[in-house]
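Q: What changes when guanosine-5'-monophosphate is included in the input?
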Amino acid sequence: MADLPTLIGETDIQQRVGELADEINEAYADTDLLVLVGVLKGSFMFLSDLAKRLRVPHRVEFIAVSSYGDRESEEHTGAVRLIMDVRHDLAGADVLIVEDIVDTGHTIVYLKELLQARHPKSLRLCTLLHKPDRTEADVEIEYLGFTIPDVWVVGFGLDYAERHRTLPYVAELPPDQR
Ligand code: 5GP
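A: The predicted holo structure follows.
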């Protein structure tokens, strides 16, 4: 398998994850319980590396969603569907959604509405990547790793048809390889 062009290298990712963890440790220093809600599957590596650096009391939950239709097709409405819910009650907890990438923003709007209805004490978003050129929805990102251009990225949890997900860095997948 030929090497893909690196967009964000391993060292840069790890350094930024460390900085985000510092910010989160400080922001939640007085928390009784922080619940990280990782959005499957894309966030699993980011969440793992981030959580290893947290010093505040925290739990890990996962949620899975999927969007209707192919994202490039006309049926792609932006509608999001819940595939797997979290396992425990979130009422009264400080909830931090951990996402791989914010693209159009529809997934995050859906998730914030869904989780807000569970009455958390607070609800924030931490995402590794953001593509502002494609974002249609009004999303507030409290903790952001990197802003990237409008290219398809893989690696560090992100896939293309389940491929390239476990690369330790973020690469750009050229159109001729899709
Ligand atoms: P949104 O609802 O913000 O448009 O989409 C978010 C989801 O789309 C992400 O969680 C991710 O699964 C997928 N996505 C968006 N852009 C990319 C990309 O460049 N690469 C990969 N692998 N997934 C992406």
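Observations recorded in class: Residues 42, 99-107, 152-154, 158-160 surround guanosine-5'-monophosphate (CB under 6 Å).
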